[in-house]
C-alpha cells in the first residue's frame, strides 16, 4: 500500500493536475471567504464552505478519472494485479493518495478562521467542525469517483459518470421535494432501485440466478407491503432520499450542530465505495 500511495501522490504533482486542482480549491474558497467574511462581515466560516460545496462536482471527477483508468491504459494494472500486494492495499493506497491531494488545499484554507479570530470574535470550534465535515464529504465523494474510475477504461466516461453521480447526490434534497409521497410512487421508485441492485449484482457475479432471486424477493416484499400496509410506503421514498443526501447532511454543521451521525455516514459511504472498488479489482484479477 505504501508504494502505491507514494507512486500515485508523486504522479499527481509530477504533472499539472494536482497543482491546478489545489490552486482551484484555494482560489474558490478564498474568493468566497473574502466576499462573505471579510467584506460582508459574517463571522461564520461554515457559510463559506456551504457556498463552495459545488467544487466537488468539478474537482472530484478530474481528480479521480485517471486513478485506475490510467493503469489500464498503460497496462500497469496487470503488474499490480499479479504483484504480491493485496487488492485492498492497492485500492487503499490509491484512495489515500487522492485524499491527501484533496487535504492539502483544505489545510491551507484552514488558516482562514485564525485570520478572522485575529480581528474579531469567531467560534473556532464551529469553524473547524464544519471544515472536518467538509473534508469527510470530499473523502466520500472521492471514494465514489474512484469506484466509477474502476468501472471503465475511458477517462472521459469515468469523469462523466462521477459528475452525474455527484450531481444526483447534490440535487437529492430538491428531487425528494418533487417526488410524490403516495404509496404507488414509492412502490415504483423502490422497484427501480431493486432493478438497479439486481443489475449491479449481475455485473459483479456474471450470474442471472442471484440477481433474479434478489429482485424477486425484494419485489415480492414490496408488493406485499403495498397491498397489506400501503400506509408504510406513503412518503417513504422522499424520506429515504433526504436521509441519504450526502451534501444535504452538511447543512447541520452550517446550522451550528455537531452531528456525529452525519460524520459516521460520510465515513460509511467512503468505506462502502472503497469496498466496491476492491471487489471490482478482485473480479478483474480472476477474469
Short description:
With 287 residues, this protein is mainly α. The protein has helices spanning 2-14, 17-39, 45-51, 56-64, 69-73, 77-81, 87-109, 112-119, 124-149, 155-178, 183-205, 209-228, 236-244, 251-254, 260-286. The longest helix has 27 residues, at 260-286.
The Cα radius of gyration reads 21 Å
Structural class category: mainly alpha
Number of domains: 2
Oligomerization state of this entry?
single chain
Q: How large a portion of the residues is in β-strands, by DSSP E?
A: under 5%
Mean pLDDT: 85
Helix-strand string: HHHHHHHHHHHHHHH
How far the N terminus sits from the C terminus, by CA atoms, comes to 23 Å
Per DSSP, the total helix count is 15
Shape type? flat
The largest sheet is:
none
User: Which percent range fits the helix content?
Assistant: over 70%
GO molecular function: ABC-type transporter activity
Membrane topology: Multi-pass membrane protein
Protein name: ABC transporter
Keywords: Cell membrane, Membrane, Transmembrane, Transmembrane helix
Structure description:
The protein has 287 residues and is mainly α. It folds into two domains: 2-174 and 245-286, no CATH class; 182-234. The protein has helices at 2-14, 17-39, 45-51, 56-64, 69-73, 77-81, 87-109, 112-119, 124-149, 155-178, 183-205, 209-228, 236-244, 251-254, 260-286. Helix 7 (87-109) runs antiparallel to helix 9 (124-149) and helix 7 (87-109) packs antiparallel against helix 15.
Amino acid at each position: 500500500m505504501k508504494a502505491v500511495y507514494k507512486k500515485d501522490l508523486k504522479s499527481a504533482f509530477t504533472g499539472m493536475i494536482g497543482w491546478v486542482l489545489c490552486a482551484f480549491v484555494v482560489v474558490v474558497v478564498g474568493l468566497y471567504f473574502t466576499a462573505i467574511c471579510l467584506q460582508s462581515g459574517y463571522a461564520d466560516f461554515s457559510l463559506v464552505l456551504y457556498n463552495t460545496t459545488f467544487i466537488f462536482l468539478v474537482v472530484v471527477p478530474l481528480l479521480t478519472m485517471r486513478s485506475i483508468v490510467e493503469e489500464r491504459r498503460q497496462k500497469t494494472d496487470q503488474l499490480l494485479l499479479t504483484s504480491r500486494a493485496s487488492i485492498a492495499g492497492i485500492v487503499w493506497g490509491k484512495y489515500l493518495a487522492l485524499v491527501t491531494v484533496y487535504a492539502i488545499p483544505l489545510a491551507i484554507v484552514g488558516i482562514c478562521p485564525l485570520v478572522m479570530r485575529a480581528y474579531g470574535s469567531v467560534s473556532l470550534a464551529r469553524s473547524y467542525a464544519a471544515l472536518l465535515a467538509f473534508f469527510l464529504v470530499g473523502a466520500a465523494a472521492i471514494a465514489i469517483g474512484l469506484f466509477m474510475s474502476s468501472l471503465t477504461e475511458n477517462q472521459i466516461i469515468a469523469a462523466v459518470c462521477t459528475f452525474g453521480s455527484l450531481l444526483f447526490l447534490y440535487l437529492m434534497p430538491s428531487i425528494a421535494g418533487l417526488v410524490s409521497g403516495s404509496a404507488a410512487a414509492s412502490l415504483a421508485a423502490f422497484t427501480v432501485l431493486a432493478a438497479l441492485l439486481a443489475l449491479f449484482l449481475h455485473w459483479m457475479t456474471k450470474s442471472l440466478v442471484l440477481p433474479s432471486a434478489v429482485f424477486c424477493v425484494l419485489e415480492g416484499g414490496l408488493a406485499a407491503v403495498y397491498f397489506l400496509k400501503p400506509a408504510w410506503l406513503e412518503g417513504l421514498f422522499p424520506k429515504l432520499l433526504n436521509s441519504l443526501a450526502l451534501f444535504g447532511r452538511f447543512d447541520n454543521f452550517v446550522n451550528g450542530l455537531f452531528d456525529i451521525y452525519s460524520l459516521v455516514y460520510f465515513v460509511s459511504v467512503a468505506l462502502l465505495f472503497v469496498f466496491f472498488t476492491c471487489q471490482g479489482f478482485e473480479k478483474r484479477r480472476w477474469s
